[in-house]
Amino acid sequence: MIATIAAETFQALDPAIMEFPFERNYVESIVYVSLYVSLTAVALSTMVSLPIAMLVGFAEFPGKRFVIALVNTGMGLPSVVVGLAVLFLVSNQGPLGTLDLVFTKEAMIISQFVLATPVITGVSLAAVTGVEEGVRDAAYAMGGTRLDIALVTIKEARYGIVTGVLAGLGRAISEVGSVLIVGGNIAGADGTAITRTLTTAIQLEARQGRFELALVLGAILLTLVLFVNAVVLRFGGGRI
Amino acid sequence: MSGRLARADQRSLNDGIAVSNLSHGFDDAGVLEDVSLSVESGEILAVIGPSGTGKTTLLELLAAFYRPDDGTVRIDGTDIWTLSERDRLATRRRLGMVFQEANLFDATVRRNVSYGLHVRRGWRERLREWRSRLFGGSRTPAVTEALEAVGLGGAENQAVASLSGGEAQRVAFARALAYDPDFLLLDEPTSDLDPRNTAVIEEAVETARSRGLGVVVATHDMHQAERLADRVAVLIEGRLIEVGPAERVFTDPDDPRAQRFIDGELVYSAGENDD
Amino acid sequence: MHRREFVAALASGGAVAVAGCSDTDENVEVGIVGETLTLTTTTSTYDTGLVDEVDAAFEDRYGVTVEAVSQGTGAALESARRGDSDVVLVHARSLEDEFLREGYGVNRRDLMFNDFVIVGPEGDPAGIDGMESVTDAFAAIAESESVFVSRGDSSGTHTKELAIWEDTESDPGGDWYREAGSGMGQVLTQADQSGAYTLADRGTFISMRSELSIGIRVQGPIEGGPALLANPYGIAAVNPAVHETVNYDLALAYIGFLTSREGQELIESYSVDGEQLFFPEALSEDPNFQQYVPEGWRPEEE
Description:
The complex is a heterotrimer. Chain B is of the alpha/beta class. Chain B has helices spanning 55-62, 85-92, 109-113, 115-119, 123-134, 141-149, 165-177, 195-210, 222-228, 246-251, 256-262; strands at 17-26, 29-39, 44-48, 70-75, 78-79, 95-98, 183-187, 214-219, 231-236, 239-245. Chain B has a domain at 3-103 and 181-262: Rossmann fold (3-Layer(aba) Sandwich). Chain B is globular and about 60 Å long. Chain C is α/β, with parallel strands linked by helices. In chain C, helix 7 crosses helix 8.
């Protein structure tokens, strides 16, 4: 597991830390929560963002400029604000109260979905509109339907789209404001994280003044993000 | 899938392709003005004229890229804009097109050339195809033959980025051939190529004609038109001023402007001169 | 049945009913097994680690899960108001009273206490060292206009501080009164650097003592100081009449557990670095009716 690798790396690198300051179970569980929430949110967001990017890039419809403005504004949404908005939605006295989502990982996925989608949409939009018109014409000339042409465009823009997805993932996995509010930073009495992510755990250590421990968790988070980036880029052929 | 080797008289586009009274403009500027011409299976029509004269627009209208402002476009006798979208799709799938730029997809040669076949498959077949590609993939005879026709038989697994400009255009040509169209629309296909690549493509065009395909080739290269065409249409400033058998148009055209063009006196808007 | 026994049974309602059923079994066969209790509490309470400790024992006993959410005092009560939590544990009596008055909370119990201290610079410009009256000490600070740093964040500490100011009948304001809007650790650091006074909970002060030059000027009741500086913790269940979906049975079992001998012993024995942090308060032979209602409430009020 990544957490174990990171832990052992730390031990090797810093002899001052005689033993890893956290229990393995604890670290593994918060890594799991971080990954589960952010990866799911980004996956769902990508499925929605690509069609939106294609629509905005290539279709004409009333209010198109409004949608573009919305996407650009959305990239700068403060995470706390999104967290509050989602809390109002899923709170017991909110419209989705019957779904029992408050203080769950699923609510966290919702808020991170909202944070990641504008980023992925915006970058993908730039990528797909950057595809040469001649290539799209060629796909049409060879008998492609609108859907075929859309798929060709997405494939041609894949490197840009991957960049967008990674940017969205970065935004999601390192934010603390929204998951803290909708998730509640809950860890069981035995130390297993329920809605505690790496970022909210870092925040917890920091508010208690345990800055070194906070930094250790921060290093784990960075290692994780690096690892995911490397995997995705290798997958995509390694070309930026 | 053996349509490519079908005999010329088994071609199904009995009525060829034709435009009547075609007019079209962009941004209040007229590009084509009342153009009428037709092409039969098994013949090559060259559309010649200065750059910017509407040749590309004509071909794009033939390929059903957009609806003309005025006039009709008929494929196999039917006005394609009276058809449902689905029927029009089926009709335009009998055409193949090559552009001035290769416009290849960022993938392997094989993926490019097989694209036409790929889109004609239902989704279940595509899934099967995708699965088999994950496990090594198999060669399709249609793809191999199309590539051989342009002299690139062994290039299937090459990445498009590694091709030269001439090779890329040849792949574009193979791409249009692979799914066995009835008509080819070529928009200045060799204007960016060296003589050797030009020759390869011209040979492929003639082979296609001998197999029964009809070909419309837009070109500003008079010599190419002379080499390839059965009939020639002269398009100047959006108007068709001359159309007829190649030999007659080149040696004794009716319209003096056509004569002047052929003699090389009309200047292109792009400033490119050819003799 | 004697009134106080009845009341005690009410408060630990679930526990009594359940205790009767459990003979030899550790895990009790009641409708609450396998369920989840959501508790909201303050960050300072949670950060001591006490909550995890008692929750573990409670979870073992009943075969349930406790999800503890640490928020600010205000947020903890707000979550309870929204029905997002089943039980709330805070240490801000006036805010708890408001919570009860508004009808959101029921079955409030006193749980435990620790205390506050007034810390300030060695020079003691306000001259409050060793004073027996907290109100007088605050009045002296206001009169001498010595710098005072306030939490300013509606936390338990801030609420206590405001209550004291109200008693002095002087409105703190002006250059000498600074609202920091941050946590206890930061406020202590700020007071230290400005040579100012502040109200701090003993736990946080002790943990930072070695880095500070300011010291205790007025002690809290644990070390013999005035009782007004006591920091009592209260626990209450969310009213099931307001939110149908709260787990009321489990909330009462939790309150019952924490206010039982076992729970209170756990609280008393909980220590950090050898120091006891909390003093149990729930069990008493003498009646303490004030814990069930807002402070100062009289039956004629309505």
